[in-house]
Amino acid sequence: MNTFLKSLTVGVLSMMMFAAPGFASETIKVANAGALSGDLAPYGISALRGVEMAVEDINEQGGILGKKVELMLGDDVCKPEVAVNVATKLVSDGAQMIVGHVCSGATIAANKIYKDAGIILISSSATNDDLTLTGEHPNFFRTISNDGAQATLMTDFAKNELKVKKVALIHDKGDYGKGQMELAKIAFEHMGGVEIVLFEGVTTGAMDYSAIVSKIKRSGAELVMWGGYHSDASKIIQLLKKKRVDTLFMGADGIYGDNLPNLAGEFAEGVYATGPNDTSSNPMHQALTKEHQEKYGEDPGTFFITGYTCMQALAAAAEKAGTVEYDAMRAAMFDITVDSPMGPIGFDKNGDIIGAGFSVYRVIDGKYQQVN
Amino acid sequence: MRWISILLGLSGTGAVGFFAVREIIMYPMYFFELFLGGLTRGSIYALIALGYTMVYGIIQLINFAHGEIYMIGAMTALIVATVLGMWGWNTAVIVILAFVFAIVYSCAYGFTVEKIAYKPLRNAPRLSALISAIGMSLFLQNYVMLAQTPDYLPFQSLIPDFQFWEPFAHIITSVEITIIITTVIVMILLGLLIKFTRIGKAMRATAQDKVMAALLGINVNNVISATFVVGSATAAIGGVLIACHVGQINFYIGFLAGLKAFIAAVLGGIGSIPGAVLGSLVLGISESFFTGYFWSEYEDVFAFAILVLILIFRPSGILGRHDTQKV
To answer: Which of A240, A249, A328, B67 is the most exposed place for a label (fewest CB within 10 A)?
Structure first.
């Protein structure tokens, strides 16, 4: 009996000990959700490192509203069905703000949960137009321009700089890739003077793309515009070159970063991509890049800086609102100006970023370099 | 009413036929190019499908882990080629060693998988072995993902871009022609093995009647192991070749390829070796034409639609035997 009582006391005490943080709520729980594994993990991890670094900096300066930030993680492998589960788990674990998700498809799926729960979602990388322009995602913000802006830039560049007359638009059938190519199609039709000779989707992860490559060749396209991510792009680029098809290749931020040159090697040479503006002259950007290099021994990935900015924006909005409660936070998001590594940024009425945009890059000597 | 529908049917077929013929006559090179692309793809399917069909012929098991054996072949070749490349070995030696290692490793995996996952279940209900196969497939995928990496890895093509091939290279690449030739050689060797060697004879006997074969002194367990080893070897060759073709691999490539090869094997008549080859070529070429002349969006839908149609009209496949069997 005595031992039973003792163990009971120990049990109850330890339960209270573990439960204590929940009662007191001395931290602010921020969750980072996105692909942390799978073939799109390089994007998710680049963003996560940015968020982690921002959380460290914020905590060093005393946290948000005097409370330390506690970072929770969710891995959705960029799959919409997984993202919904991740979102449900994060909400039930008490996340108060979410940074993520990384891929547009996953973000759209997961935001149903966050919207119902009244939680602000801010993404460093999800660029699909529907997220901001339809008004169906009032709790959504992003620190990257939308696909519409990207499509305008891509189509302008294709017409005015590359001076192509015939383009083939190829996508991976996903929310991000197909959405982007549909926007590009509208932009081309609106501009006129460029003929769309092919508009097709391919199965992502397929064994072989030689049939679509033959089709591109027959279409006589001078430029292949790709909506999708780097792994499929790499296969198509290699086959185009191996089959001596004389076209240029251009993608969006889905193929921007070191991933594509690493994967396709010499075949990637000359590929165009749009990516977030190069802000590497900003002192804050330089300091963060240096810190990243010291910590991880490599250059930051594609969404490191935008990830950092996400966390900064959340902190600024909470400070301005004086609370993390949804309505006040949301109102504050539109009012803040964040002194970010990308320069001063804010958010427009749709939740899209003000003060940042895209540039065009080209792979030269195995690295993307700005060309416009 | 009847003659109206006949008339409609005829004119429909006629119109489609007319456009098909016109298309082929106007762009013969395009037709040829798609055909060769499909032949390449079908060859890879065939190399994998052989393993499915041989194993099924002998123990009536769909070895769902077979796609993973193909992936392991490609992974092994990548590791060997990278290491030897760093040591600065001669390219020809690297190619041969990469193929040899890939085949040996895949055979070892195929052999072991059979011993661990299927042999203990040989007299269990067939569904148990099938589930064991699916489990093995998931295990191998995740094992490679954790032991290697979840990312796509660049695969330096082991087959050089032939210089003499230049005038034809825009129709068919050097890798594609290598794939087709290698597959033909493998098929001939396999045919000889099955037709003329002792083990081939034992395989055929075991496929016909396991009990009778055992009564006549054939070691059935050895024959089954040999079947897995041969199937794994052809899959490994397929894995290395496709990696050279697309230039990148990851742990997941075996899944879709295995599934397509399985369809091809069923299409041709599972259990039949010529059937598997024929089914693979039919599937590969028709996928290629479908993408080339219609929409690549629906390529997989089309592949599965063919499967459904074949199963409705010829349940045992193109060259399958006409006895009812359950999976």
So the answer is: A328
